[in-house]
């Protein structure tokens, strides 16, 4: 078992602590939180071992799980990597692209592995259809949330939209050509609602909307490709797959057949992929353990986390 320690014991940090303690692939050694009052409360309530300093925690583990505010991601990661520790780092990977690129080089120089917490890659709905998404040419995403003061220290693009940016970059095999975006600050000092249009060199277009001031929660993405439409509901963990194929000469009487202007007939049919329930956060942590143990590439690499951050920063700069 890999010895793991958590940096940061806020809302998400407490979830990571609980799951690491449950995991059969990690031994939870403890956590460090600079807020000693909060740390003492958590230690007393849950029995987790609270370290008195960042260095002490890093020295005691194999894997450092960084669940601190974004501004401190880089400094925490640098200290962990410098001592030869593998790092799991929450999204976004760092506060700037420059910091993120330095982390990639540091990890490579010290021979350690890193994974970024883009948890939607482990959403069971997305997992059930990701192999069916092939060369999409139009993508539309909506990630809407009710207002919550937690997270408003960063623009909604880094808080919410970056999830969809990462998913899109993982399925579009092409470089970004151009980005146009707009964002509006309504309650916070940083944008609370944003829309971005990303054009790729292969002609694919992605239209993303994110809001943290909505009256309801929504996390939906739709992928349009040749002869197929795929919808993923990340919140409800549901999918819809609609495909078309050449219609047979004599279709079934219940078949749904469309004919285009050229007279070509296509039959529409529906697929219902099996969705296996899981705990996405536990899965991302445990697949990282597998990557370390088997010396394989993590599912969400530091480089991929950096690419998502690059696009997010370009969106923000175009407001």
TrEMBL record:
Domain (Gfo/Idh/MocA-like oxidoreductase N-terminal): residue spans on this chain: 3-118
Domain GFO/IDH/MocA-like oxidoreductase: 156-216
Record-linked Pfam families: GFO_IDH_MocA (PF01408), GFO_IDH_MocA_C3 (PF22725)
GO MF annotation: an example: nucleotide binding
Gene3D superfamilies, per the entry: Dihydrodipicolinate Reductase, domain 2, NAD(P)-binding Rossmann-like Domain
Protein name per Swiss-Prot or TrEMBL: Gfo/Idh/MocA family oxidoreductase
Upper classification of the organism: Bacteria, Pseudomonadati, Bacteroidota, Flavobacteriia, Flavobacteriales
């Amino acid at each position: 078992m890999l010895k793991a320690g958590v940096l940061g014991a806020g809302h998400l940090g407490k979830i990571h602590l609980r799951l690491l303690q449950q995991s059969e692939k990690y031994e939870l050694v403890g956590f460090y939180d600079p807020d000693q009052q909060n740390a003492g409360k958590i230690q007393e309530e849950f029995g987790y071992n609270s370290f008195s300093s960042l260095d002490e925690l890093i020295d005691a583990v194999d894997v450092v799980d960084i669940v601190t505010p974004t501004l401190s991601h880089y400094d925490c990661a640098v200290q962990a990597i410098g001592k030869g520790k593998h790092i799991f780092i929450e999204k976004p990977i760092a506060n700037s692209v420059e910091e993120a690129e330095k982390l990639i080089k540091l990890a490579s120089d010290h021979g350690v592995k890193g994974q970024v917490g883009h948890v939607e890659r482990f959403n069971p709905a997305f997992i059930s259809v990701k192999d069916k998404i092939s060369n999409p040419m139009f993508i539309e995403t909506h990630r809407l949330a009710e207002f919550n003061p937690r997270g408003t220290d960063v623009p909604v693009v880094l808080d919410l939209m970056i999830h969809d940016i990462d998913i899109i970059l993982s399925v579009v095999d092409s470089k970004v050509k151009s980005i146009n975006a707009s964002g509006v600050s309504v309650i916070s000092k940083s944008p609370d609602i944003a829309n971005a249009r990303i054009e790729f060199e292969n002609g694919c277009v992605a239209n993303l909307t994110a809001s943290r001031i909505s009256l309801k929660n929504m996390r939906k993405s739709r992928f349009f490709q040749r002869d197929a439409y795929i919808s993923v509901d990340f919140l409800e963990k549901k999918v819809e797959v609609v495909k078309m194929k050449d219609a047979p000469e004599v279709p079934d009487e219940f078949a749904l057949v469309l004919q285009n202007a050229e007279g070509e007939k296509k039959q529409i049919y529906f697929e219902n992929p099996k969705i296996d329930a899981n705990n996405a956060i536990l899965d991302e942590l445990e697949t990282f353990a597998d990557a370390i143990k088997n010396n394989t590439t993590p599912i969400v690499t530091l480089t991929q986390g950096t690419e998502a951050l690059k696009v997010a920063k370009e969106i923000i700069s175009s407001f």
